[in-house]
Amino acid sequence: MFLKCIKRTYILIFTVFLMGLNPAQSYDSEETTMIAVYEKINPAIVAIDAELKIGVSGGTGCIINSNGTILTSKHVIDGSKKIEVTTYDGKTYSAVVLPTNNKSGDLALIKINPKTPLNVIKLGNSDSIKVGQKVLAIGNPFGFAGTLTQGIVSRIDLAKNKIQTDAAINPGCSGGPILNTTGEVIGISQSIYNPDNNISNIGIGFAIPSDEVKKFIAHNIK
Question: 1: pLDDT confidence band, cut at 50, 70 and 90?
């Protein structure tokens, strides 16, 4: 009996040891979805630093072509003397602004020259979104590259053609994607509303709908 107890004790200790070497992490369905979307899309998102007369403008970009064409917000790079793009894996490239026929809008295209094909985003249909649906945002707030936040579609402003969301959008996120839970881009982060001059985020952010983005791309990339 004594030997059997010792044997069982050793088996228990060995089992615990193996569990310690191979810890199992479980995620609920919502976490699994967010992780999958982030790991799929983040490689197609870049950080942008544009050198302006007044300083450096930081923003985010979405790779729309594997050859290095990047979509971003016009206000991020407007008037820039030099643009530096950093991909998710830390590689840095110089970028040039591509000419576009979008004088009144806040979208822009820039181009880098990678040595290998890049990951690209997939644009979804913004005309099917609903207030209350879950969304994710990826951006570079205050220079923290590859930041993921979550929220919902808070409002659809048909008059101004904007998607409102409470997913955290901060300075540096402009040009980044607003995603549905399948990883499709349904909007491009553009601006936030706050009463304290960009000191804080109060959960009112705006994005350009993806259907508008599609029109812009189709009109400017042949």
Answer: very low
